[in-house]
Write a structure and sequence with these properties.
Layout lengths: L2 H23 L9 E2 L6 E2 L6 E12 L2 E6 L1 E2 L13 E5 L2 E11 L2 E10 L9 E6 L1 H25 L5 E6 L4 E6 L6 H16 L5 E6 H6 L13 E7 L3 E4 L14 E10 L2 E8 H22 L6 H25 L4 E10 L5 E10 L3 H13 L4 E9 L3 E8 L1 H5 L4 H11 L4 E3 L3 E4 L7 H18 L4
Parallel strand pairs: 2-5, 18-19
Antiparallel strand pairs: 1-3, 3-4, 3-9, 4-8, 6-7, 6-9, 7-8, 10-11, 11-16, 12-13, 13-14, 15-16, 17-18, 19-20, 20-22, 21-22
Helix pairs in contact: 2-3, 9-10
Length: 464
């Protein structure tokens, strides 16, 4: 899920659309089969109007629906990297959802499925043509952003950067440019900042028809390999960018809203590609990343602004645990070092084993599991553990078997004396007690003292 999946889905859809276009629309790029309704020539009005009342000059019945050539056409046909418009054409009791726009010898034609009954017998067809305004506006955001991006790349990478191709769609933009090396994170950040600064300053976008020679002489960029008429359309963001362009643009750079680079890659020798988002697409991208961050913070049981620190701590703890395990394996001790092990005679007969150990574990739960195993094993005795955990964390735990408790030898009694050696205080239950460690240098001494504590307790214990 997420942006990358959606992006790949869009790429696959685009490839499929290109195939369908070549088979379906490409076969219709001729003047045959069109029924004329009105004499006249077509005028493109899509730079200034997205909704017009107009006459149909010609129409054509097709397997995919109906094709129309309008006298006044507000629909942009794909060129210069900008995708075609979508929208609807409405008549009396019928409409066509425009999903294809194609150039034909008789003008720009609109294609789509008919909803209702198309009046095939009429000789005069008046319609309302409406371009999908939100889709067009998103497309213009991306188109003007490509001009700002081009200027930013030339400013930060060098004058050798020139456009090698582009895609301007409503949901994203793609810009191919001449450059020999992958961009660094710093370069991408600088380019992104340049574009956003231009957006936030809300520069006017000035568009004018000019003579080609005059425009180029004044610094307008022309695409290498493109053929231009004597009169050209110049899109100028004063002081930042000036290019020859026939596409649709916003009126002010502030309309772009926000610009975000999502990928930079190589597509051919000496050609790099940037894919980016603007406006609502960029906003959705950041909201998706925010949701991922919040989910990650929830899993890590921390705040979103503390995720990196928390991950660093987890990695440090993991490395420490692995180090302890490696050390334990090297000693062949399974993570245990026996510091004291004594057989203590019980007054009146019998004996008991006291063990004092250093134990390396991940956390206190592992130490308690060790104690549970000791207590459930049926062995008679007292065990005191000095526990070492990642992050220089330490604790002491004492465990006493059932028969020891019946003789008055309790874990909470032993731990108080042992803990005093390492400068802390302890407490707990008869079977298990716990204390902190203030003076780690006296851990071994404390473990040995535990044997003396047990011995002294037996000397005064009842029930033996």
């Amino acid at each position: 899920a997420g942006f990358e999946t959606a992006l790949e889905t869009q790429r696959a859809r685009s490839r499929a659309d290109r195939v369908a276009s070549s088979v379906e629309v490409g076969a219709l790029n001729d003047s045959e089969g069109w029924r004329p309704l009105k004499d006249g020539s077509q005028t493109f009005v899509g730079y200034t109007s997205l909704e017009v009342e107009t006459a149909v000059l010609k129409w054509k019945a097709m397997e995919c629906g109906v094709g129309l050539v309008l006298e006044k056409n507000p629909f942009y046909f794909e060129s210069g990297g900008q995708v075609s418009d979508t929208g609807v054409v409405r008549g009396n009791d019928w409409s066509i959802a425009v999903d294809r726009v194609a150039k034909t010898p008789i003008g720009t034609a609109l294609f789509g499925q008919v909803d209702g009954v198309f009046p095939e017998e009429t000789d005069d067809l008046q319609v309302t043509a409406l371009v999908a305004a939100d889709v067009r506006f998103d497309t213009t955001r991306n188109h003007t952003a490509t001009h700002l991006l081009h200027a930013a790349l030339r400013s930060h990478l060098g004058g050798h950067v020139v456009q090698r191709g582009s895609l301007v769609a409503p949901d994203r933009l793609r810009f191919d440019f001449a450059h020999t090396a992958p961009m660094t994170e710093r370069e991408k950040g600088e380019v992104e900042r340049f574009v956003n600064e231009a957006v936030w300053k809300n520069h006017p976008v000035e568009i004018a028809e000019r003579r080609y020679d005059d425009a180029v002489e004044d610094g307008a960029m022309a695409l290498f390999g493109e053929k231009y008429a004597d009169e050209v359309r110049v899109v100028d963001v004063p002081g930042i960018s000036m290019e020859l362009c026939g596409g649709a643009h916003v009126s002010h750079t502030g309309d772009i809203g926000l610009f975000r680079i999502v990928s930079e890659s190589g597509v051919a020798s000496g050609v790099r590609r940037i894919e980016a988002l603007t406006g609502r697409g960029a906003f959705s991208y950041f909201k998706e990343r925010e949701a991922t961050l919040e989910e990650t913070a929830s899993v890590l049981k921390t705040r979103p602004d503390n995720v990196v620190k928390r991950l660093e701590q987890l990695l440090t703890d993991k490395a420490a645990v692995e180090g302890l395990l490696d050390e334990a394996r090297a000693h062949g001790s399974g993570g245990e070092d026996i510091i004291a092990e004594e057989v203590i005679e019980i007054p009146g007969g019998g004996n008991v084993v006291y063990r004092g150990l250093r134990l390396r574990v991940r956390d206190l739960d592992d130490a308690r599991k060790w104690g549970d195993k000791f207590l459930s094993g049926g062995e008679s005795g007292i065990a005191t553990l000095a526990v070492e955990m990642p992050g220089d964390k330490r604790a002491i735990l004492t465990f006493a078997s059932d028969d020891m408790i019946s003789r008055g030898i309790r874990a909470d009694t032993v731990i108080r004396e042992v803990a005093s050696v390492v400068g802390s205080r302890g407490g707990g239950r008869p079977h298990m007690a716990q204390a902190g460690i203030e003076d780690a240098s006296k851990i071994d001494e404390a473990l040995r003292v535990g044997a003396n504590v047990v011995r002294d307790l037996f000397s005064g214990a009842k029930g033996d």
